[in-house]
From TrEMBL:
Name of protein: Leucine dehydrogenase
Family: Belongs to the Glu/Leu/Phe/Val dehydrogenases family.
The keyword NAD appears for this protein: yes
GO molecular function: L-leucine dehydrogenase activity; nucleotide binding
The Glutamate/phenylalanine/leucine/valine/L-tryptophan dehydrogenase C-terminal domain, residue ranges: 144-351
Native source species: Planococcus maitriensis
Matching CDD domains: NAD_bind_Leu_Phe_Val_DH
UniProt pathway annotation: Amino-acid degradation; L-leucine degradation; 4-methyl-2-oxopentanoate from L-leucine (dehydrogenase route): step 1/1
Length: 366
């Protein structure tokens, strides 16, 4: 893999490879863009088959965070970490402490949080070594697990997408096919069930499926069957790249709205959804509840303030559909433009000299 060529492609600022033989830590921190502020994004632990796959995931997810944070109006850049390993077998305290020290070494350029495979307890261990971590235990005055808040944002965003598709944002009586019933999707199913939606669920973890069947009367299907269900809405809440050449022709839904990051395998798959008249709620907007919540910790966590901000996801999704219609473009492009324009405006305003007080500028030589 030609790493610098990869980095140039979407102008990534920094890739940091962290290795600690003692604990088995192998982590890749991707800092994509810090125009708006320090890069904030979670740490994913996953059993990647190859190092190339891990690098690809880190950079794709890191860039997604730049867009997510910009679109959410946060003063934060985008980044992400992947740790190579099995989250069920390979975790230990030394690993997260070693990782915390690497984050500390970046001196605030990168701030972490949870993602797939990591928990509040893991963040607490990182916190032993650095303050540049969010989503730590509420006992520290922090916001804790971001997943239920991500779920709430995804629920609100799904309602905005339903409004676009059906002219009514009620989900009562709608059938929602949910892929993956993990930390985000389970509370999402709770909201949907409460509103009277019918649920079809799948997961590679049979216990997770059973929990949803027992709690919400959901219908269980095999993982490969979820795309072709007779449903109104498809909610991808597992891994990325699931909107692709194989799955799109199977979809019977009118709406794709879920929490997974990087849902479109390639951008052209967003065009394909549009061509088929499927309303797509852009992933990095509909799933921004968690990052909005953890980012609030940087101001001294206030749950009420954070939840108010999460509720704006409805308006953001609605605005994206309006821009898409106005400009005749698919919703994923409208969302990207919204984020890129904000980054560009801030970048331009920074062209004016302001002494930072750090480093060696010409005025400190006197
Ligand atoms: N947790 C959060 O606050 C946020 C999560 N996200 C994204 O939402 C998605 C879900 O995140 P979490 O719920 O935290 O993760 P999780 O790991 O708790 O849940 C994911 C679930 O998907 C299942 N799964 C994996 N591959 C599957 C497949 N091929 N078919 C069916 N099920 C499969 C897993 O067994 C697991 O139960 C991820 O893409 C994550 O990056 C995005 C923003 C914030
Ligand atoms: C889990 C969030 C707190 C941050 C993140 O990495 C994301 O939104 O994907």
């Amino acid at each position: 893999m030609e790493i610098f060529k990869k980095m140039e492609e979407h102008d990534y600022e920094q890739l940091v490879f962290c290795q600690d033989k003692n604990s088995g830590l192998k982590a890749i921190i991707c800092i994509h863009d810090t125009t708006l502020g320090p890069a904030l994004g979670g740490t994913r632990m996953w059993n990647y088959e190859t190092e190339e796959e891990a690098i690809e995931d880190a950079i794709r997810l890191g860039r997604g965070m730049t867009y997510k944070n910009a679109a959410a109006g946060l003063n934060l850049g985008g980044g992400k970490t992947v740790i190579i390993g099995d989250p069920l077998k390979d975790k230990n305290e030394e690993m997260f402490r070693a990782f915390g020290r690497f984050i500390q070494g970046l001196n605030g350029r990168y701030i972490t949080a949870e993602d797939v495979g990591t928990t509040v307890a893991d963040m607490d261990m990182i916190h032993e070594e650095t303050d540049f971590v969010t989503g730590i235990s509420p006992a520290f005055g922090s916001s804790g697990n971001p997943s239920p808040v991500t779920a709430y944002g995804a629920y609100i965003g799904m309602k905005a997408a339903a409004m676009e598709a059906y002219g009514d944002d009620s989900l009562e009586g709608k059938t929602v096919a949910v892929q993956g019933v993990g930390n985000v999707a389970y509370p999402l199913c709770e909201y949907l069930h409460k509103e009277g939606a019918k649920l079809i669920v799948t997961d590679i973890n049979k216990e997770a499926v059973q929990r949803a069947v027992d709690a919400f009367g959901a219908t269980a299907v095999e993982p490969g069957e979820i795309y072709s269900q007779d449903a109104d809405i498809f909610a991808p809440c597992a891994m990325g790249a699931i909107i692709n050449d194989e799955t799109i022709p199977q979809l019977k839904v009118k709406v794709v709205a879920g929490s997974a990051n990087n849902q479109l395998k390639e951008e052209r798959h967003g065009d394909e959804l549009e061509a088929r008249g499927i309303v797509y709620a852009p992933d990095f907007v509909i799933n921004s509840g968690g990052v909005i919540n953890v980012a609030d910790e940087l101001y001294g966590y206030n749950n009420e303030r954070a939840m108010k901000r999460v509720e704006t996801i409805y308006d953001s999704i609605t605005r994206i559909f309006e821009i898409a219609k106005r400009d005749g473009i698919p919703s994923y492009i409208a969302a990207e433009r919204m984020a890129e324009e904000r980054i560009e405006r801030v970048r331009n305003s920074r062209s004016q000299f302001l002494r930072s007080g750090h480093g060696h500028d010409i005025l400190s030589r006197r």
